[in-house]
Amino acid sequence: MKKQALSLLGLSALAAGIAFASLTQTPLAETKASSPTITPTSSGLSVPQPEEHPLSSMVDGNDSTWAWFHTATSGCYIQFDYGADYRFSALTLLTGYGESFGDTFNGNVKISEDGATFYKIGSFTTAEHAFSVDLSANGYYFRYVRITDISAETWMAVREITGTISGDTSAFASVSVSSNMTLVGDGYGVADVNTATDIVDNDIDTFAWYNRVTSANAYIQLDLGSTKSVSSLQFLQSRKASPSDYAQTAITFAYATAADGPFTTIATSASARQHFLSFDPVEARYIRASLSGTESSVSNDFIIRDFSVNPVWPIRYSSDLKIYDDYRQGYALSNSSYGVDGNEATFVDFDGTNRGASSWFELDSQKAVTFDKINLITGKETGDKVTACTLSYSTDGISYTDIGAETSNDGTFSVTLPNKLTARYLRASALSSGWMSINEFNVTTQELEAFVNYVTALSCADIATVSGATTAKQTLENDYAALSSADIANIPAATLAKYTYMHSYCQYVITNNVSGLGQNLSQEDTDRYLLAGLVCVAAFSGAMAIFFRKKNKKD
User: Fold this and answer.
1) Nearest-angstrom CA–CA distance, 257 and 224
2) What torsion, rounded to 10 degrees, do the Cα atoms 248, 341, 358, 374 define?
3) Of 319, 312, 315, 321, nearest in space to 436 by CA
4) For the chain, how many helices (H) and strands (E)?
5) What's CA 151's distance to the chain center, in Å?
6) Are the CB atoms for 19 and 137 separated by under 8 Å?
7) What domains sit in the chain, N to C, each tagged with a CATH number?
8) How confident is the model at residue 295 (pLDDT cuts 50, 70, 90)?
9) Each residue of 308-355: pLDDT tens digit?
10) What's the pLDDT tens digit per position in 442-498?
11) What are residue 264's DSSP bridge partners?
12) 515-541 burial by CB neighbour count: b if 16+ within 10 A, else e?
């Protein structure tokens, strides 16, 4: 059976309330190369100079070469096949040729997992010679990229397509770890995750577990592969099941351009489970964390979950605020990423001790985004709510424009703006006093919010009849058509997965005039639609997740 990454795995993750990528990330990492071979093809277009300007010019990594197409016909397209479904975080398409970018054209960019059903992620015009879409917030899975709806130009040129596969850290892809400390053995039952590479895998839930330090000058060191500009770092230790397993001593962070130094000190931080440092940019290849002396005899072994440079911190905050460094009962240690992970049960936890009157925290979207809806959820798990704040926005993180003061008795703010704004930073200041836990902080558009809400609420019972399927299909299409290209790029992966197959199932019910699930379906369709339907309306158990994994391997 063909692997249905978007239907079975995507909808399974949705029903389980976990990240869409979690069920597929490990198999993908094990079986696929990070630099796949891309096969370009075209249909309905002539290629007048196949030797001088072959299709391979579009995937040769050279933006000074190009493929030339002639005479677009109805239904024509240019397609790129990555050979398997990958999780993408960005996609760039370059059109036109030469210094003047001649022979640009209009078109839509669509993606597909199976090569049959395609979904639009953006469009470009003759006035543009570079199309780029950031998919990092979601990490879409697809195999095929297709340029469609091509304008009736006589000549068309495509220079290059570049897809960034999620997990490729580009500038820091070659980071390696060295240490004069030793890892614990298999006795703890963590041999499968207890490796030094787990410190630099961009996953704060995996870890390396080191033996108790018994000698001076213990250190762990990153090799960035080459000299790079570094201006921040994070060093995360311990885990919920082992809260005391961290280096209970001061740590000195330093940098160098050569492996044997000399090392220049960045800062020395007092004993803590998590260290977050920002500093003036330095040129460095090696970053070292050195323990000050030895740990006391009562100290445990210690766990390192992440050691990274220039990390993405989606929730930034004023210098007088401090992320709480201990565990709330039953919860993971606080982290900036938890404020934007779509899970209201996780949070960024700010220690309320010694807070100043000018405290602030802000959402950094990492790029300018357009929005007219602001959602801020606080204190949901801890009771430490923000009940008053002033919202403001900025494009550069320096100059801010006020949106207005807001209040909330329950710590939840849902603000609809009269007009759309475009900004990278959204700040909450003039905060109510005390401790604060930020469950979610995000911006969106009213159109995208309506689309996500409808898809989330749609159940298989709603489309079990031809009438219901017809209504649902039309609503899905209308809501999707109302989205901008930026909205489409920001559709949560689980929502896109559910939309894809609910729409397909609506069409199946309408075309075949069937009611209910599983009637008159082939075995393959039963696997695809019936199982997808079941997970829409039922909690997806861990046992079923294992079943899907085994089934995919077997098939």
Assistant:
1) 10
2) 180
3) 321
4) 9, 23
5) 33
6) no
7) 5-16+449-554 (no CATH), 35-165 (2.60.120.260), 170-309 (2.60.120.260), 336-447 (2.60.120.260)
8) low
9) 998 888 999 998 888 999 988 878 888 888 999 888 889 999 988 877
10) 999 999 999 999 998 988 788 888 999 999 999 999 999 998 877 887 888 778 878
11) 255
12) eebeeebeeeeebbbebbbbbbeeebe
Distance CA 290, CA 441 (A): 35
**pLDDT over 70, % of the chain:** 79
d(CA 250, CA 268): 7
Residue 366: left (phi > 0), alpha (psi -120 to 50), or beta? left
HSE-up of residue 32 (Cα within 13 Å, Cβ side): 21
Cα gap 137→30, rounded to integer Å: 23
CA 225 to each of CA 157, 197, 485, 492: distance values in angstroms, whole numbers, following the listed order: 36, 14, 36, 33
CA gyration radius for the chain? 26
In 3D space, the residue among 160, 155, 64, 161 whose CA is nearest the CA of residue 121 turns out to be 161
CB 102, CB 157: distance < 8 Å: yes
How, if at all, do strands 155-165 and 119-124 pair? Answer: unpaired
Phi-psi region of 115 (alpha: psi -120 to 50; beta: other; left: phi over 0): left
Dist CA 469 CA 459 (whole Å): 11
Query: 541: Cβ–Cβ under 8 A, 6 or more apart, which residues?
Result: none
3-class secondary-structure state, position 475: helix
Please say whether the beta carbons of 93 and 67 come within 8 A: no
Which residue bears the tokens 């740990």? Answer: 295
pTM (2 d.p.)? 0.61
* Residue 255 near residue 244 (C-beta atoms within 8 A): no
Q: Which residues contact 447 (CB under 8 A, 6 or more apart)?
A: 479, 482, 483, 484, 487
Return phi, psi of residue 47, to 5°.
-115, 90
List the structure tokens of 114.
């199976």
Question: DSSP secondary-structure letter at 375?
Answer: E
Using an 8 Å Cβ cutoff, are 487 and 447 in contact?
Answer: yes
* Gap between the terminal Cα atoms of the chain: 5
Paired tokens of 128: 């543009």
Contact 454, 476 (CB under 8 A): yes
